[in-house]
Amino acid sequence: MTRILATPSQLAEARDARAAYRAGAIAPTSGVAHGLVQANLISVPADWAYDVLLYAQRNPQACPVLEVLDAGATESLLAPGSDLRTDIPQYRVWRDGELAEEPTDASTAWEEHPDLVSFLIGCSFTFEAGLVDAGIEVRHQTLGRNVPMYRTNRACTPAGRLTGELVVSMRPIPGDRVADAVQISGRYPAVHGAPVHVGDAAGLGIADVQAPDFGDAPEIRTGEVPVFWACGVTPQAAIMASKPPFALTHAPGYMFVTDVPDANYMV
Amino acid sequence: MTRILATPSQLAEARDARAAYRAGAIAPTSGVAHGLVQANLISVPADWAYDVLLYAQRNPQACPVLEVLDAGATESLLAPGSDLRTDIPQYRVWRDGELAEEPTDASTAWEEHPDLVSFLIGCSFTFEAGLVDAGIEVRHQTLGRNVPMYRTNRACTPAGRLTGELVVSMRPIPGDRVADAVQISGRYPAVHGAPVHVGDAAGLGIADVQAPDFGDAPEIRTGEVPVFWACGVTPQAAIMASKPPFALTHAPGYMFVTDVPDANYMV
């Protein structure tokens, strides 16, 4: 589907980043390879694949599927030469819904389950490039932190054995740029699209916006409004709630960097 | 997901239409319940559901999934009170990839396979309302005919046991309205979105634009350009090519009329 190709310098940055993560480097990926799509990972044994794909279909704003690999496959079409077992900075291994470990290399986990089906799910880091290009500060990038993410009180639509709540990411946006942020992100429905909520975090059942469930605490300045987008960590909440025997995911904020320009997903 | 509700008169039209089809009325549905979403149907035995959902995910422009019902379920969330076994004007029953019959009631077929999983897939009739509202004539509506549809030489991305080619629908558009038609339909990525091809049908491997594979022959007038959109009959081409033991679909052009306004799928 890639019609708009990455520039040589973008490609070099993406490939260098994946190579560094493969060699063991660990850092949140927000801002890496500006203008290229990043993706969330969830890999499950083949007999759970239909449930995951159906959950994604029924909750498309949180779980926009960019690619589904065949069982056992590890090279993404979105990044030729990639290896999903090694090219993400940090992983999470889940056993019966519990976080078991956070390795930087998932090869061992893959050896345990050679039939894993991997789903790459759109990430809001994609439209952050559009915000930055429009002169809207992405605070966690400025601060060199991970984006804050929160579990909410909004239930996702169940699918098969999967249930769980919506997870959101938050960016503080100046009041006079909220409309721009909505419109820019809204052009990317394949990577969460427009926000799900603007303003009071309590509206999503978030008790303390300064205490995110994943990522780092935000810095919200005077005149800024918290803006919440559906987040690709939502499948991890479903894992916690639904307890499949095994799952592999990225660590929140530590994404799979692809070779595909964001513009391919713009409406 | 429905946030924008249908008007009472739209709802009455949709419900009356479904009731008429349930009672045996047969007619193409283009133009019925103006402004409400119509959908393609494909129902397969549960052990084929993952292949269909994956095929749709990998070919989203042709197969944008609006709803996946649980195995055996027959009432669509997009039309409360509906029954997918009876509420479509005409069906196609497929056995081993061959068209076996075209009943107006699919209850008997359902009794054979009580585990059918039904997929409702977006239909280009949805954005036709937008074209009409913009003063762009939808010729097959004017003529009271079915839209012309064509098998093409473009292969879809395979998924599991499913392969097949892209099917397209065609509408002749005046040269000075092609850009408008592209932009209007492009706002509805969940119902095929922007055209896949404009102009010479040979570019899609279509030998004779006057001899569609499904629907009725077009009437292309001087100054008009053939504009081709991805079509929700694409899964039927996959059935023909891949020969699952059983499948149930709508008959091309005879769609499932929902209660959901098009605007819910506009970006």
From TrEMBL, chains A, B:
The keyword Cell division does not apply. This is Putative hydro-lyase FB468_1938. It comes from the Bacteria. It comes from Leucobacter komagatae. Its EC number is 4.2.1.-. Belongs to the D-glutamate cyclase family. Keywords: Lyase. GO terms for molecular function: lyase activity. Pfam families: D-Glu_cyclase. InterPro entries: D-Glu_cyclase (IPR009906), Putative_hydro-lyase (IPR038021), UPF0317 (IPR016938).
